[in-house]
Amino acid sequence: MFQGVQIIRMGKNNCSDNEMYEQTLSEEMIFEGKVFTCVTRNVKLTDGSESIREVVIHTGGACILPVDSDLNCYLVRQYRSGAGEIMLEVPAGKIEPGEEPVKCAIRELKEETGFVADKVESLGVNVATPAYCSERIHMFMATGLEYAGAEPEVHEFLGLQKIPLTTLVEMCDKGEIKDSKTVISIYKASRRLL
Which residue range forms the structural domain that includes residue 73? Predict the structure, then answer.
């Protein structure tokens, strides 16, 4: 535990970690798609009562923030149907079954930006919507960039933008970048590089 972190217990529903786990009694698949599966789970709670959880099961993803020697970053713009708008994001993609997250990130870096990197380091894991989605996005930073030619997927329409890291931090602070994996990657990279 970090220095200065204190656990405060108050009220009857305030539990220790061991008391919070739920027991899955049954699970039913509601939808199975190419990207995710939806299930409902009947669960037993700590107090013995039962409840229903609706969960999106996802294999996970990886993203990568490419940073050049002048601290410029390369992000992609693309239309996102779920948000209903064009988003500015770090290159990212779905982890294929059996694929290591770092391999996915390196693949997406080449496909979406055309860059290969001398060094790829982890920026941690983002669990964006843990209440109902299992997706974990593994975040990476790429440095020592060399352009080798982009190879976007057939139905992937992207725009590549070169933006200084300091400008990206300001854009995050102003709410101009909305994608959580991108915001977290930018802030984490800025703590290491600025």
Answer: 61-193
Q: Is the confidence at residue 7, as pLDDT, over 80?
A: no
In the predicted model, is pLDDT for residue 117 greater than 70? yes
Contact predicate 55/39, CB 8 Å: yes
Please state the domain count of the chain.
2
Decide the pairing of beta strands 137-147 and 61-66. parallel
Closest CA to 101 of 122, 73, 115, 70: 122
Beta strand 85-89 pairing with 23-32 = unpaired
Question: What is the strand order of the sheet 23-32 is part of?
Answer: 23-32, 36-44, 50-58
**Among 192, 180, 190, residue whose Cα is nearest residue 63:** 180
Contact 140, 64 (CB under 8 A): yes
